[in-house]
Amino acid sequence: MDTALTIVTDVIILVTLPLHCRYLFVMLTKDVTVSALDFAFRTSLTSIVVANLLYSIVFILVQEPAAYGISPDFYRSQSWWLGKISIMQAVPITLLTGILHAMIALNRLTALNYPTAHGKFWSEKRVHRILFIIWALTILECIPLIYPIEGFYTEFDSPVRSIGVNLEVKGSVPNLIYQVIAMAVGGLLEIFVIFLYAFIGIRISRMKTVARSTVKTTVAAMLVSTGGCVIVLVFLPHMMSTKLFGVHLWSDAVFNGLFKLAFAYNNAVTPWVMLMYYPKIRHLLLGGKTHKNSTTTSWFHSITLTQKKMDIALTIVTDVIIVFTFPLHCRYLMVMLRGDIAISSLDIAFRAALTSIVVANLIYSIVFILIQEPAAYGIFADFYRSQSWWLGKISIMQAVPITMLTGILHTMIALNRMSALIYPMEHAKVVVVVVVVDDDDVVFIYFAYYWFQFWSEARVRRILIIVWTLTIVECFPLIYPIEGHYTEFVSPIRSVGVNLEISGSIPNLIYQMTLLTKILSKLEEVNEI
């Protein structure tokens, strides 16, 4: 169950990350639709999304790879500072969202109880001051983590049954202090928010007339704050039953999985509520523009909007597939290189070719996650533009030589399977030689076994060396003299994306034709079959 909870948590965080980026972009454009929202409510939500983005980045780049046991030596050696980053994510950033939830709840309370003075009390200048104080307190809370507290790590069995690395801070006292801050201050804040919204609900039910916009914003604020309530509902009953009655509601693994899932929900709920609850905000988040009166224009607009939605959905599905298969690739490679008896029983050519495919897929995934997708989303666009002279080459290496390598290995596996079925004796041939020796009327019979394999281990290694060598040779022109380049396009989150490629139409055409030739040859093979 803990594995399932971990996968769901990862999906929520990863799928919501592009939405966080898009939401922040829309909020900073100061559209008329956005400006119509209550200023304090809108600005607080923007701060929550910034905090959630920081949380997601640490989660994706630090916390989860370490927890899955991906490059554990790196995370162990760098735990002296990554442990600090991990605690900053777990306590100050999460506490910041709790304070902002309380601020939004107080804003909704004054909107209902003091509608005439509400605008004056939550003036733009005052809201900026409050947010500045909140962020300053969050930064101050992080200072002890910078110095003198040191980062540390512990090891545990990861969800994929490898040795995971848990990043934390050294010493029981610092850990206890930050746990108390998180549980006491954060927990009390969220409980305060729950009671505040309960009071607001009672207040609304007793009021005869309430502005529709006020009620709508209040409901949205309550939904946004449910993330903190979920954390309290997971944490409080488990702690109370454990401390007071000595009964564990869940095992430690399941509790950790539920706790991470609650934090993931808290991280994701804000942009999804705004996307679902406000049609005009949804229209902006999905890249829509103002509708025109013409029926024909509306029809074309609806088709375009549907295509944009489909584009976003396909991009998200692609990202989820690549990112979630990455730990499995790492685990598979580790298992294959261990040389277990169960693995050794597999056909040597089949096993070696699959391992090479996984290595190629790992290279593809690393380029996809670290270069291709961040550039395509417009994240740190200036960096990718300035470094396109070599990142463009890497991108083409991923798109053509690595993809061609997997195609060649697929062909090798297909030939291996064909020889196993059509020529079983030559594929794995055993010759039995009977030797009869007569020594003083005593007959000794010796059986000598000779194993002949067309796909012998030495031959398979030679084939794989040739395949990988040809792949590396294919990359040489991309190292020199071909240069990298970039073009710009509208990304799935409607920011300016960077497409990394190589400069010159002829090099692009050559590599595209190489890939096209491979695809056509594959189609011919399928037709023949």
TrEMBL record:
Endpoints of the signal sequence: none
Tree of life domain: Eukaryota
Name assigned to this protein: G protein-coupled receptor
